[in-house]
Amino acid sequence: MTTATTGPAAKAAGAGKAKPATMAQALQRAMRDAMAEDPTVHVMGEDVGTLGGVFRVTDGLAKEFGEDRCTDTPLAEAGILGAAVGMAMYGLRPVVEMQFDAFAYPAFEQLISHVAKMRNRTRGAMPMPLVIRVPYGGGIGGVEHHSDSSEAYYMATPGLHVVTPATVEDAYGLLRAAIASDDPVVFLEPKRLYWSKSDWSPEAPAPVEPIGKAVVRRQGTGATLITYGPSLPVCLEAAEAAQAEGWDLEVVDLRSLVPFDEETVCASVRRTGRAVVVHESTGFAGPGAEIAARVTERCFHHLEAPVLRVAGFDIPYPPPMLERHHLPGVDRILDAVARLQWEAQS
Amino acid sequence: MQQRSSTVQEPPGAVPAYRPTPPPAWQPRTDPAPLLPDAEPLRVLGTDAVADADPALLLRLYAELIRGRRYNAQATALTKQGRLAVYPSTTGQEACEIAAALALEERDWLFPSYRDTLAAVARGLDPVQALTLLRGDWHTGYDPHEHRIAPLCTPLATQLPHAVGLAHAARLKGDDVVALAMVGDGGTSEGDFHEALNFAAVWQAPVVFFVQNNGFAISVPLAKQTAAPSLAHKAVGYGMPGRLVDGNDAVAVHQVLTEAVARARRGGGPTLVEAITYRIDAHTNADDATRYRAAGEVETWRAHDPILILERELTERGLLDEDGKRAAAEAAETMAADLRERMNAEPVLDPMDLFSHVYAEQTAQLREQAAQLRAELDAEGEA
Which superkingdom (chain B) (predicted)? Predict the structure, then answer.
């Protein structure tokens, strides 16, 4: 990663030494800018106020905007999201933090029965412009219940958008877009990328693209790796390694799981003729199942090999000392690439 | 304790004796006594207190109760005619439904459960719109902002945190708005009941939680639902007052709710009100109440009917005569006839609506599926 000369941290430190910005800082900046621009934006959750969140993503917001705008709530996820629904009914734009992936589960009833359905059941009279931020995924040595990849549950619920950044720039842009959205957005933050750095500058943030656009992160001709969030850096590393094996891989970062950008994904697969979906979430009925099915339905005559998946095993998330065996790594991705029926070529 | 320990002889150089003191973090908390509900549910009708009641209010309550009873009968009849998929009746509970609606100002918000269509109607909602959910042509048949009535909520108690959030948002904005949220005795066992009351008390949100304890959660009696001294006592644990009221005494319910709303409005925080009432009908038209309760029990409650006890009071005070009764009955009949007529018309359905309000903007996938349904409908039309 490159070193930054500007960034929120650099700005905070004054004109002195510049530091690259982290994803956590870009997320903080996104909320800060949204709160400054729009008085209806309210941040709420467990420990988000005085402490600034357990990952410090809401650092400084309570101090700058007051505790009514950045609120430490009681420790009750259903209550947090349920109260946010009521606040949204009254015209606010709540940005809710769920402290960890697996701690968001108590809020599922509110999410599924109310957040996702409110616009529909009221024929559009009562939209739910709220964001549910969820730190997700493994790779940080977290003990039990701190490393789930819960995206499939959210993807299976009509009415929700499901978004996940993989870069510092996207963390800012996608969170701004999520807060501006008139629909509820489950915003999945890959916690092992919280401290990833880039020379992203808060002074000139990239234009905020609408939610639902995938992006080609690496161009290639031989096969497409379709991925998102925490698996993007792994896929980019795998693509570099594959070069030595003679495979020229394209890497697509979905950025948004719902809506799913079929156009970008299928255009890539039609070019390369081969595809592997890579994610940490379990494979069975995981996001890759939907993606592989769609790609097969739409690109069948362009495919040289079945669409493969490299996913977490179909097991409860393992204890930290064993998680490296579970998480898709470069070798497992390259093994899958090797199985893409290259012998049929030439 | 401290006096005794101070007399202990300690040998020189020994470790001082342990003197029990409160843990460092401990401090005296709110005195629970003022939060406790009264020993008996508040009654006004049949007591001296009724002399203070405004005759206009008594007559208004009477007219609304008569209309409410007729509404319940009409809606139940509509299930038998196949015009409603299901109807959870509030026959016997009309005093609670009406009082909840009348206790609120126009700018306030009502958060009803699926059983509370009558409260919504008493607040001014068109009964046809109130019954849309139960007819099944859409989920919410009205714009919640129009009368400030949240969508009728089926998953128990899940609307309570919404009421808290809305009231909190209004307060942050400086608006003088109170939310009243309705729930049944069964709903008090749900986690969302607990979380909503806790949030409301911590935030001092202007909310009134109104529990209609009608004795049964479908078939399960209250004794299997809670071991609390009363449902109103649960308030104390959250640091808010609990009030107990006779749910069939319309004047008493109106008084308690009006006081709780006023308290919330002036910044006094939330209140939990438990009204003791009874579900005269089964849970819904699809339920058979004879499987879990004795007919005699129902009869004791019929003798304590909300219309009966108010009518007695009005008649004794010379506020109501046969002409007055007839006028109230006729007004109710007009409402019922209009409701019947409009519910007998086939609702206009547009299957393409299925895709209209999933997102602000349809996703590519939904556009594709909508096109598929369109083609199916066109093919049906040609057949």
Answer: Bacteria
